[in-house]
C-alpha cells in the first residue's frame, strides 16, 4: 500500500484561485480496475477543449491504461490507484450537488458564509436587502468573466455575509465553473516582429576580438539610450542584434558608427531572407535527392530546379527525413497536400522550423553537444535531474518559468519544455518565421 500511496497527486487551491485553471499533472498510472462505460470512436477527432466531462474522464483513463507492445506502460501500483481515483471522481461528479462541488473546491467561502449566518440573532443584524442585491450583482459579474472564481472577490463576498449557495451562485456545469484556458488563448498574442542586424569582425584583422566584448567596452547601453531586445551568437564569430522597432535599431547603428574604433573593426550586414522549408518523413535510405525532387515537381506541376534539398534528418532504422527549401507558394501547396507519393509509398509532409533545443538544459539556440551548462535539467518538471529519472507528478516548463522571472511576463508554466505549444517555443517559431520570406 505504501508503494501505491506515493503516486497520488494533489491539486493546489491557490492555482485554481489565482490562475483560474487546474494545474497540468503528469499522469502516474496504467491498467484498469473498472473500465469506463464510455466508448470513444477513434475516427472522431474532437479537441480536448471541446470534450464533455465524461469524454475527458475516458481519455484520462485511456492514458492510464496505455500499453506498448502488449506491455503496460506504467507499473501496477500507480495504474490501479489512478483507475480507483477516477472511479471515485466519476461517482462524486454524478452524485454530488453543485453546492457540494463548490464547497469542495472553495471551502473558505461557504465556511465564512455559515459563520456569518450563525451571527444573526435578531433582525437588527440582518443584512440590508439593497446591500444584498449589490453583492449578488458582484457575484453575477464575476461569473461572466473568463475566470469566474476570483479569490479576493469571493473572500470579500463571504465576509460581508452573502450566502454562496445555489440560489446565489447557480452552477450549470463543472466546465463553466473552472474554465481552463487553451494554449491558443495563451499564445494568441504573437511575439512582436523583431528588427535584426548582423555584426561580424572585419576580415583584415589577425586576432579579432569578440563582437560582444567590443560593444561592452565601447558603448554604455544605459547612458547611450540603446534599447536591445536580444542578442545571439551566429556563425563566423558574428553577433545578431534584435530590436523591437526600426527606430531602436537605427539608434543603435548611429551610436555604433559614431565610434571610430567600432566602425573600423565591425562589418554590418542586413540578414538575408530565406525561403521556408518543409520536411518529408520516412524516406527509405538509398533514395537519391533527384528522385525526391522529381516527385515534388510532379506533385506541384513545376520544375525540379524550384526545389532544393537543404539537409536530411535521421529517422527510424533505414529511414531519413528530407528537409526541402522552395518558394513560399510551393511550400504552401505541399503542406496543403499533406502527403506525397514516392516509390509506391505515401510520405507525410509538414512545415519545418529549424529551432534547436538542448536535451541537457532544455534551452533553445544550441544542442546538447555544445551545451556549456554543468547541470542536467528535466524536460518534464524543470528540476536538476535527468528526464529519464523524473518522478514528479506536475509538469513545469523551465523556459517559461525563467521567462516569467527574467522578463516579467506571465506565461503558463504547466507543460513540458518539449511541448510544441509552449509560449517560449512559439516565440522562437515566430522569430524564425520573421527571418523567412513568404512573399
From TrEMBL:
Keywords: Metal-binding, Zinc, Zinc-finger. The keyword Zinc applies. The keyword Zinc applies. GO terms for molecular function: nucleic acid binding; zinc ion binding. InterPro entries: Znf_CCHC (IPR001878), Znf_CCHC_sf (IPR036875). Residues 357-373 form the CCHC-type domain. This is CCHC-type domain-containing protein. It comes from Araneus ventricosus.
